[in-house]
Amino acid sequence: MENTSHTLKDVQKRVDQYISQFKEGYFSPLALMARLSEETGELAREINHYHGEKPKKAEEKENTVEEEVGDMLFVLACLANSLDFDLSDSFEKSMQKFETRDKNRWTRKEEENNHGN
């Protein structure tokens, strides 16, 4: 697999180019939410197989956590495109929230090192 990097805008554009080929277009937001829930379950299954207590059955297909996260990103791009918003803007708003509301929630590494002296 080729090693490429994509901005979120690139992801949304590529997904839109793919979906635009089909008469059906994007699923409804509710259907996309169901798809996202389905993909979340598949990710949970993979995490449980590789990092939990439930090993894969011998006949089960090898999936990876990375593939499932990619599937989730595809569905998130579909949702953003269908509702006409920019994932980069969503991410920025989310990070601003975490960087302000949660900035003192956990012990910073430099604080931990100072306490150890």
Automatic annotation (TrEMBL):
Keywords: Hydrolase. Residues 97-117 are annotated as: Disordered. CDD domains: NTP-PPase_BsYpjD. Pfam families: MazG. InterPro entries: MazG-like_dom, MazG-related_YpjD, YpjD/YvdC. GO terms for molecular function: hydrolase activity. Residues 27-106 form the NTP pyrophosphohydrolase MazG-like domain. This is Nucleoside triphosphate pyrophosphohydrolase. It comes from Oceanobacillus oncorhynchi. The lineage of its organism: Bacteria, Bacillati, Bacillota, Bacilli, Bacillales.
